[in-house]
Amino acid sequence: METHLLQNLPFAVYRKPNEDKVRAILQNDTTLHHCVDFSEKGFVFAPFNAASSPILLQPESVLEEDYLPGKVSNANVENLSPLGENGKEIHMDLVIRGIKEIEKGNLKKVVLSRKLEVKCDKLPMDLFRELLGRYPTAFCYLWYHPKVGMWLGASPELLLSVRNKQLYTSSIAGTQVFNGEENPIWGKKELEEQDMVTHYITEALENKVTDVRVSGTKSVRAGNLWHLGTNISGRIKDMALSPIIKALHPTPAVCGLPQKLSQKFILEHENYDREFYTGFLGELNRKEQVGRSDNPRNQENAAYKLVRNTTQLFVNLRCMQIDGNTATLYVGGGITRASDPEKEWQETVEKSGTLLKVIFD
Length: 361
What we know:
By secondary structure, the protein is of the alpha+beta class. The longest helix is centred in the last third of the chain and has 20 residues, at 341-360. A hairpin with a 2-residue loop joins β9 (158-163) and β10. It is built from nine helices and 18 strands. It holds the Pfam family Chorismate_bind.
């Protein structure tokens, strides 16, 4: 990976949640490819603005290795919090404008974010190793293209997973700090926000997916934070991914409701370009071999392999952009009628700790 980076060649290196394998997709020239209809094969990297074309890395070389990260120290998030305090007044004013728009009846929810820049002296591969060690349940990645830039992150949120015709997705909303408790208590604001996201996803999948199943909502831990999560599954009517991805992205968890109006509000009022923050990324149409039987006595069937088409895409959260020795971090939160501007600000500070620990510990 370091050799590829020195040669200014595109790549993506990543590890899926709860796995111990790190996989790399290497492209051997600097051509900037784009995804047209999601029938392509490779590693897709899509921006927040759905009107912009996703970037596709061609899998000209694919590497895979077992990787068991070593122990990492526990940085004190409170000591790092002041680093995320810049821009408080501006962000709280933005939140207030969002609440007023909801009170007018124009929006039900809008996700508002900010960015912060900090000095970063660590090498990209060292940052990636830190992510692997700290966040085993997240999708950890390092992505680079010389014509676009470098991004890395540890996302807790699945956009969708497809194996042949079986689809899995999830709705995640609500945030509170993990303080050692096993079952956090959620307020009305977080529960309503989670219900909005779940309802939107099930409606978006209507007429595209059959046998839709929705699990109960439970608390999901991501690093030092808790979220509310609901699993959703179903069977795709045909293998065209494009209408499903377009229906889901951007979800209310990163944009708001109604989708088009909330996205318009974000683009007009956030006063910065999110670029790939709250976009999505991951494997697109990867051919995966699986054995027919795990029974060691069944040697005849074990000799045959099933090949299935898999796609796994993750929402690009808890991410940052690296430019030289400057890291730009992106954090945000869902705003509803019940939101408190001070608490919404504090939520962004808590979320910034995910990456600040990696940079400064």
